[in-house]
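Q: How would the structure tokens look for this protein?
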Amino acid sequence: MKIVYTKHAEEKLLEKEAEKFGINKRKIDAIIKKPRNLQELPLVTRVIGKLDKTHSLCVVYKLIEGDVKIITFFPVQKGRYES
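A: Here is the predicted structure in token form.
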């Protein structure tokens, strides 16, 4: 399984919010491989993983021919999508 990033996701990695929360490809890859919560939606998959004490990281991706294509990611309040 190869993990690739859209241009949008690559650009988000350069934003201040990603720096503030310490979001990087290594952290995103780890959440993809071992999510706390996984939700398969009609067109994409959304996974949630731990970011810090009060925040989780939501990662939205699409499976394309066995590869994971990261569409976007964003920090959320812990518990927001984990129900």
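Residues 3-77 form a domain with the Nuclear Transport Factor 2; Chain: A, fold (CATH 3.10.450).

The chain has three helices and five strands.

Upvote if useful.
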